[in-house]
Amino acid sequence: MNMKMQDIIQVLIITGLISLCANFVPQIAKTGSLMEAFNKGTVEAIPGMLILIALAAVSMWLARVLPGGLPGAAYVVTLGCILTYPGMPGSAYISAATAKVGFLQLCTPLLAYAGIAIAKDLDVFAQSSWRILLVSAVVFVGTYLGSAIIAQVILKSIGII
Amino acid sequence: MKLHLIVVALVMAAEFIGNISINLGIGKIVLLPMMYALIMGTLTCPRFLKITGEKEIMGASSLLGVILMLLMARYGTLVGPTLPKILASSPALILQEFGNLGTILIGIPLAVFLGLKREAIGAAHSVAREPNVALIGERYGLDGAEGRGVMGVYIAGTVIGTIFFGIMASIFAASGLFHPIALAMAAGVGSASMMTAAVGSLAAMYPDMAKDLAAYGAASNMLSGLDGLYMSVCLALPMSEWLYKKVYRLKYGVEAPPSEAAQAKENN
């Protein structure tokens, strides 16, 4: 992970563009016209996407220059959180602009890249025994269910849900 | 460049297919474009369609960290506006890490019953994401039995975990037993893409709550990254060791042999 900042920004811009393309597809069904979908889904989402790219780039830079060895992901979530915290100057604008970027449409490119990268692990996966697969499935279901039960009980008892 | 063009094609194809709802009787589950993108991406590999080669695979895997940052930035801006509400839920966010311990109680006996030896400890002590793999590697070495166990679940999680979490969240939501917020929060236990698939499925089922669901999932995911490892070190791993020894004696009638790592230490 020693990419140049320049390369990082380039990758962020490319992914941002792909995500903006994805962003207008669901709008077609909603608005009924291609032009309007392009306007709502892509053109209106550009400022938000630029903010996200800037946040990501700044955070990766911070992860490099600041001591402590925290990953960039920790900085980017914190920064995004602070900038959109109710009452922060400009928070309403940033929040509204980034809200135009559908988070599901942001995930689609990520998982497309992830799908391509999976090929690396496919051979090992094909060799894993059915025992490990069964244990994996139980571990995933068990952990998810366990956490959901605890979350449900506590959220209910403190009156959030 | 070829890599990015393939991704554009995959993404557009996936988005044009759109959400697919399947009625299960008890309720409907939702399949999302991100899931098709993942599956189609895997299908392009040299093993199947041979569209991508070694170069694209390595390229994609080295770019993933950067691309994830964009999604994390979006999560940050989702969490910010709901932060007051999320802070009010912090007891639930912290305590739900204990949900993992129930897994050990079922997972370790099952693994030993299936004939796994010390692999069981690596496999069933956690959902085996990167920090857990690192922990087992440090404690026992990744080439030992425990390492094989944790790597097995890690690989399974990488290859099928995302889709698995998405569909699982959908099924639990359809069951009507849980509030969507509780399910979104629980989604944080896995990797970022597992959480995203689970939260995405929930958001598609409850569009009015989409923002809150994503914010809770993302907050829980971040927190799991911080306290999940402490949980593993202090509770999950010792508990797995203890339960393994009990179950081993029950099944084989003799004391469980110590780990290869511990044996090596004794021989020195």
Structure description:
The complex is a heterodimer of chains A (161) and B (268). Chain A has 161 residues and is mainly α. Chain A has helices at 5-31, 34-42, 46-65, 72-84, 91-99, 103-127, 130-157. Chain A is built from seven helices and no strands. In chain A, α3 (46-65) packs across α4. Chain A is globular and about 50 Å long. The mean pLDDT of chain A is 90. In chain B, a hairpin with a 4-residue loop joins β1 and β2. By secondary structure, chain B is mostly helical. Chain B has twelve helices and two strands. Chain B has a two-stranded antiparallel ribbon. Chains A and B meet through α1, α3, α4, α5 and α6 of A and α1, α2, α3, α4 and α5 of B.
**Uncertain stretches of chain A:** none
Tally of DSSP β-strands of chain B: 2
Q: Evaluate the radius of gyration of chain A.
A: 20 Å
Mean of residue pLDDT of chain A? 90
Q: Summarize the largest interface: chains and residue counts.
A: A-B, 95 and 123 residues
Sheet having the most strands of chain B: 2 strands, antiparallel
Distance between the termini of chain B: 53 Å
Topology, element by element:
The complex is a heterodimer of chains A (161) and B (268).
Chain A: H1 5-31, H2 34-42, H3 46-65, H4 72-84, H5 91-99, H6 103-127, H7 130-157
Chain B: H1 2-17, E1 20-23, E2 28-31, H2 33-43, H3 54-88, H4 90-95, H5 99-113, H6 119-124, H7 130-140, H8 145-175, H9 180-186, H10 192-205, H11 210-252, H12 260-267
Antiparallel strand pairs in B: 1-2
Helix pairs in contact in B: 1-2, 3-11, 5-11, 7-8, 8-10, 9-11, 10-11
Keywords:
heterodimer; A: 161 residues; mainly alpha; globular; B: 268 residues; 12 helices
Q: How would you sum up this structure in a few lines?
A:
With 161 residues, chain A is mainly alpha-helical. Chain A has helices at residues 5-31, 34-42, 46-65, 72-84, 91-99, 103-127, 130-157. In chain A, 81% of the residues lie in helices and 0% in strands.
